[in-house]
Fold this protein.
Amino acid sequence: MASNFVHLKRIRVLPGFKLTLGFTLFYLGLIVLIPLAAVFWKTATLTWPEFWHTITMPTAMASYRLTFGASFFAALVNAFFGLIVAWVLVRYEFFGKKIVDALVDLPFALPTAVAGITLAALYSDHGWVGQMLSPLGIKAANTQLGIFIALTFIGLPFIVRTVQPILEDLDPELEEAASSLGANRWQVFWRVILPMLTPALLTGFALAFARALGEYGSVIFIAGNIPMKTQITPVIIMGELDMFDYGKATAIAVVMLVVSFVLLLSINVLQWWTNRYNTNNLA
Amino acid sequence: MTPAATTFRSLPQVVHRHTTSEPPAVRRVLIAVALVFLSLFLFLPLVFVFVQAFAKGIGFYFETLHNPNAWGAIKLTFITAAIAVPLNCVFGVCAAWAIAKFDFRGKNVLLTLIDLPFSVSPVIAGLIYVLVFGAQGWLGLYKNADNPHFPWLANWLNEHNLKIIFAVPGIVLATIFVTFPFVARELIPLMQAQGRSEEEAARVLGASGWQTFWRVTVPNIKWGLIYGVILCNARAMGEFGAVSVVSGKIRGQTNTIPLHIEALYDDYNFTGAFAVASLLAFLALITLGLKTWVEHKNAALNEIEISK
């Protein structure tokens, strides 16, 4: 290993390694790592009972349940419809397909505040969709359903964009082999195609879920932010900040950060799995 | 336009049936399900923004945009993006150069750390800068007492009257944080795939480091760079949560466009809010258009690469 390293160093003809890596680490440290470390520094100023009391207070506990639940179901709905959208975009031809394909990324491109006020107005009792739902007794504005709708909107592209490339690269010979061996179309999908899409589906699901957990802008307008009912965790942090209670805000932020880091780690493992599957298919 | 209706008419004629395709009825149902889902969640909100923006006529629309507070928000948004995007661009190129052209230990850790800002909630992205620069923060100015952590830095900020939180620098910093990975994550896989042989050849033939970079690397990564910049810019101009924490929300001074939208909405000036929102929705459409165009260009280039 050591001799290998020396060897690499000798034949290095490209310049700028120290400069670019140095700047990368400096900038990363200044913008991301040092400020993030401040969260853990601030938490350390709290005593353990203070910290525990803050992160387990009833409004916070209710917000975790809501944030996790709504994010989970939004990601689940997106996994189902996202797979259909990806399938349709890859396998079928129809009028306006290119425009539809481009618009799938709208939730990435549309600022969250715009999405927030739009969904809130659409689903309010007088809004285009809200007035159709209210005779049915369904209320989306200021309810948990509204939060679910907003999170579904922002998570929509993740599944489509992770499944789409894998579906494009699938070897048609596998499907042909399965059907020539007597499998019907549903069996081919269920037994051959879906298992190959599973890593990508899980990755997309995890990405959509992770994004939904931290989402703020698109949710707050439709949610109404009623304590214990429709307050997501970022809103709790915002509330503590508005009262200049930085200790409490930071304690809850630590809970969110730890969850996101664990998710980030599992997404990396999933992506490695996806890529492995993909290169196996290509080989 | 009702996408579902046009679809049925324009389905292509299936000339020969593969063993690996679905019956036409199943296809139609799947296409209809996809389009209904997308219409409800994407097209309808998009149309709604523009309809609401002009609900009180074109006069009211331009009146809202001509308001000094709106104008201040537009200016601040452009200034913020004009600082954040180039900085993250330089960072992206540096990171991609170091990671793609050289081997070193801890590369995977570095890659994960670069992606880190994407997994941090926007509200927390704002909070961390409050913890560093805020009144009780690391570099904060404690009332009637010296900062116990970094007195010289805090005093320096104080002497130069540099206010960061609830002021423009805080907004810029929070925006840099949330848009941090965009350019880097486009360029790193691209430059890794391209390898280092072309640059090495240029060097062996006598080109200097800068010549190699400008004449060999930049033309190769041009489209990836543009792609990253487009996405980075869209997020920089549209960021809401992080900026909302550090801005202080002084109208006309520390409100960006998304914060101005919130202010108008909270005033129950819904048409005004949608009028300003239509600017960002328009930006989103331009972003999607440019993105598709770059992808198209890139796909053409990739096909040449693969056929080699």
Residues 246-282 of chain A form the longest helix (37 residues). Chain A has one domain: 51-282.
